[in-house]
Amino acid sequence: MSKEPHIIIVKKRARGHHDEHHGGAWKVAFADFAIAMMAFFMVLWLMGITTQEERIEIEQRLQTASVFDNIFEITNSPYPIDFDGNASPFENPINSSTNSKRRSDTSVAQQTPQGDDKASAGRGPKLNSMLAGKQLSTAQLTMLAKGLNEMAEALSASNNIVLEIVPQGLRILIQDDDDHFMFQRGGIEMTPFFEDMLYNLAPVLGQIKNRMVISGHTDSIPFHRRDYSNWDLSGSRALKARQVLVDSGLPVANILQVAAMAARMPVNKQDPKSGKNRRIEMMVLTKDADDQLAQLFGKDQLEAKGPAVSKARSYAESNRPVSRLDVMVN
């Protein structure tokens, strides 16, 4: 009997892997769950640090944004979050060492050298001889309003400029809408969209002799600092609008007054907290309204008003009470 080596054959069967049944789908599901939880805790965090009004603004911003808009781009943000009265790094990128300001983030007014009279030359429509260089009446201001309305449509700002003829002159309301905010929340820095708007309005308004009053308005939400109120904020914003207009070519002499109105004159009286109430108004005065305002604040203008005022003053002086000492002396 031959003794041959025994050959042992081992058969190994490949064990089925757990992933073969469903692949890597569990990893995708877990990633979706992690993202959902992160978004959930982000919402809880925002609800904890924001007020009710700020939550409404965030909701409106998300509802009106389209898929083509980057709502998280800091240059498009209305800055609804308040960091205890201090600007966050996103609200004040100028102080950030990593910030490199792009030319596309600046307005045309910022890109134009300020203080140069030639900067406004050739800009804006040329008014006809009936309007240019004159003190416009109410009828002529109506013609001017029509031209400004066409300019607003060309700038895609029809929702941001409201023109109204009133007995005192031409009332120009410049206000926010759901897509554009004139100022960052609680600040006075004007956004490029509105700077370009004033940059185009200034040379047109500078072609007439009517003087104007610029007033700043806020909503009824109290300011979050004790040493700074809505009066201060509305006044600072009105002064900022004046500065942009003058830098854009409006003669300094065309501005008669800059006023702070806070929340005293809301446009939307049913909702004093509405964003429509946050606005800048420019009142282009008629000759009569200009004279009345000058009489109200200027003594010299009152004294120069002719014989009627002089006669009234003489009558008042002749009928003032006289003491016995005055009689004995005289």
UniProtKB/TrEMBL annotation:
A GO molecular-function annotation: kinase activity
Membrane-spanning residues: 28-47
Domain of life: Bacteria
InterPro entries reported for this sequence: Bact_OuterMem_StrucFunc, MotB-like_N_dom, OmpA-like, OmpA-like_sf
Region Disordered, residue ranges: 85-125
UniProt KW ATP-binding keyword: no
Record's subcellular location: Cell membrane
GO cellular component: plasma membrane
Ranges of residues in domain OmpA-like: 168-288
Coiled coil: none
Entry keywords, A to Z: Cell membrane, Kinase, Membrane, Transferase, Transmembrane, Transmembrane helix
Topology relative to the membrane: Single-pass membrane protein
Family: Belongs to the MotB family.
Name of protein: Histidine kinase
Organism classification: Bacteria, Pseudomonadati, Pseudomonadota, Gammaproteobacteria, Vibrionales
